[in-house]
Amino acid sequence: MKNTKYAAFQEFSGLVCAFHWIRAFSIFALIATGFYIAYPFLQPKISPEPVNFLQAYIRSAHLICGFALIGVSFFRLYLFIFDQKSAFERESISQLKNPKVWLSLIGSYLWLSKHPHIKGAYNPLQFVTYFGLAVLVLLISLTGISLYINVYHEGLGGMLMPFFKWVEVVCGGLANVRAIHHILTWAFVIFIPVHIYLAVWNSIKYPNGGVDGIVSGIRYQKH
């Protein structure tokens, strides 16, 4: 029986892998702390001393992770557009308008056909999904900053207020901003299990890197 040989190549740079996991950790932390801020179900022990800062600690963690997500997302976009090591990712755009690739791809997910040959790091469905995720990050960041500047009027909040006050106006008030922010959070809650399932499914069905690629940055191709 002839053995199939594979060659390893770098699919993602170290920075891309690091940014993925920073964003993943930030999103998980933001969901947990955000739901707690909306419904603070934990009650610290009553004390006459000013030490009951649980809500403040949770809010601080939420803000830190929020600004980490914003900062990393900016750098991630910069790498995708300008980084030479990310050229393999940019190749994915070339197949978005190819209906044959889309049909074969959907067929492979339905176990009806083989996975088509993909140019670049992402298949068309992945690329569209990740683009949608980027839009979600943008919208939830805008609404998050709008909520932030209405609580913190000095320092960074005061600096950002002239640039982001329009978000509250466009949304029709701060209550609507909070509602939109909450609804967008549920979009992330839905995305995460689907993303994990499809990533693992793809790794099992096509074991040429898959999930390993975003951990090590390495993918394997047949000679």
Low-confidence stretches: none
Overall tally of structural domains: 1
Percentage of residues in strands: under 5%
Label the overall shape. Answer: elongated
Radius of gyration: 21 Å
Q: Summarize the helix and strand pattern as letters.
A: EHHHHHHHHE
**What's the CATH topology name?**
Fumarate Reductase Cytochrome B subunit
| Helicity, as a percent range | 55-70%
SSE diagram, text form:
Layout: E1 6-10, H1 14-38, H2 54-82, H3 87-90, H4 99-109, H5 124-149, H6 156-171, H7 174-205, H8 211-216, E2 218-222
Antiparallel strand pairs: 1-2
Q: Could you please describe the fold and organization of this structure?
A:
It holds the Pfam family Ni_hydr_CYTB. GO terms for molecular function: electron transfer activity; heme binding; iron ion binding. The chain has 223 residues and is mostly helical. The chain has a single domain, classed as Fumarate Reductase Cytochrome B subunit, CATH 1.20.950.20. A two-stranded antiparallel sheet has the order 1-2. Helix 5 runs antiparallel to helix 7 and helix 6 packs across helix 7. The longest helix is centred in the C-terminal third of the chain and has 32 residues. The radius of gyration is 21 Å and the shape is elongated. The mean pLDDT is 88.
